[in-house]
Specification:
Helix 1 runs parallel beside helix 7. The protein contains 7 helices and 7 strands. 45% of the residues lie in helices and 17% in strands. It is α/β, with parallel strands linked by helices. The longest helix has 31 residues. The strands form 2 sheets. The chain has a 5-stranded parallel beta sheet with strand order 2-1-3-6-7, with helices on both faces.
């Protein structure tokens, strides 16, 4: 058995502090916490994360300057995580700018990967992509949106560069902004429960693996 607790970190991106995005991130963490995991929520908007890749970031990449302080602080919060969950709404068939900025700035060279594309400290972690969208999951799978997410995020970024192979993508689809009738509320409660169970299963699965080891 491992001598430390599982740690799950959810990174969420939505400007509305009480959005369904935040609710999904919290549901995952609450489920994990009920199972005994350590948890941390990184709300990029409420924490005023600057997503813009700056000259300071570039100088660090070129080994001509120090790592920006805000990036260093976020790296410390995810470096010892066993599971990273990226929770975001689909904006123009991709992630919001603030989440893209997290990938650009925080998952940088000499941390997430090394020179030559060699995986860094994130190798071997688990990743959950929880994507909220107004369209239907089946439509995205047919028209190439899902494939684009797979290639750009799952395969090239997380697997090839970061060394993360355990990746699960979950769509919360068919959402209509502002529509909170009774049927929608019931369905959302079921979705939140589903994500909460997923969080708890992270801990159960980890415990089972440790016992087998």
């Amino acid at each position: 058995m491992r001598s430390f607790e599982l740690k799950v970190v959810a990174i969420v991106a939505n400007p509305e502090p009480n959005s369904l995005t935040q609710a999904m991130g919290n549901a995952l963490l609450n489920g994990a916490a009920e199972g005994g995991a350590l948890t941390d929520l990184i709300d990029l908007n409420s924490e005023h994360f600057n997503p813009v890749y700056s000259l300071e970031d570039r100088r660090y990449y070129l080994e001509q300057g120090p790592l920006p302080a805000d990036v260093a602080a976020l790296q410390q919060r995810i470096v010892d995580a066993d599971v990273l969950a990226f929770v975001f709404p689909l904006y123009w068939f991709s992630m919001p700018a603030v989440m893209k900025g997290f990938f650009d700035r925080v998952l940088c060279r000499r941390f997430a990967y090394l020179k030559g594309g060699v995986p860094g400290v994130l190798a071997g972690k688990k990743v959950k992509l929880i994507v909220l969208c107004g369209g239907e999951e089946e439509t995205f799978r047919v028209d190439g949106v899902d494939q684009a997410i797979d290639v750009q995020i799952c395969q090239r970024t997380l697997r090839d560069y970061c060394g993360i192979t355990d990746i699960e993508k979950v769509y919360i689809d068919g959402l209509i902004m502002g529509n909170m009738d009774e049927d929608i509320r019931k369905e959302l409660k079921e979705q939140l429960f589903r994500i909460s169970v997923m969080g708890r299963q992270l801990v159960v699965g980890s415990s089972d693996n440790e016992q087998r080891d």
